[in-house]
Amino acid sequence: MVYHLVRLGADVNKQDKEGRTALHFIAVNGAIEVLECLYKACKEEHKEINMDCKNYQGLTALHCALMESGHCQGQLKQLPRAQSITNVPGTFMETREKQVLRGKQQKLQQVVKAMLVMGASPRCQDAKSGRTGLHHAVQSCSTELVELLLFHYHNADIKHKFVNQTTYNGNTALHAAVGLQDDGRVMCVLLLQADIVRLIAKNGADQSIRNDENDRAIDLV
């Protein structure tokens, strides 16, 4: 249906009363199949998709996909652990709810990857706090998403600027990673947090950068 609507002249960049485009809806739902149809139709019709269009909350579709992954992570941590199967020792079975959430996380990761290929900028900052895609990926507590964004830039100078880009209050992605904590939404285990910190540090994070409160990332430990 999406494919035919675009071919019939639908405006792919049209915003609703909250400033959301079709991309924003695709992002929060992890609708990778719809995104692929949209991309194919726009390419055939020579229509340009505004990949960095912000809704009225100042978020791009890429920001929304990264944030939704964080919401899924938080929900997963609040669910009971997998139950053991009594007749098969050492085997565990996840609840249907967990399986659905993990499936959505995988689709969100595919959406993020596809959006990057389509031209979405991970350096784009949200309007509220100036967080980039990397800040949002860190706060989603996903090593896969952090890695995906870090490897998006191959030019060393551009990657260095991206990794050390600050929010409006001067926090880098390293500040965000070191400061990860259970805020009731994203509960990140210490080992996962350590992996994210190592990833960012390994990819050129400047540990001497101080935020507006004069704190380096190490000062937040």
From TrEMBL:
Q: Where are the ANK repeats?
A: 129-161, 169-212
Q: Which residues form a coiled coil?
A: none
User: Which keywords does the record carry?
Assistant: ANK repeat, Repeat
Which Pfam families does this entry report, sorted A to Z? Ank_2
User: Record's Gene3D superfamilies?
Assistant: Ankyrin repeat-containing domain (1.25.40.20)
What PANTHER family does this protein's entry cite?
ANKYRIN REPEAT FAMILY A, CHROMOSOME UNDETERMINED SCAFFOLD_25, WHOLE GENOME SHOTGUN SEQUENCE
Q: What protein name is recorded for this chain? A: Uncharacterized protein
Organism classification? Eukaryota, Metazoa, Chordata, Cephalochordata, Leptocardii
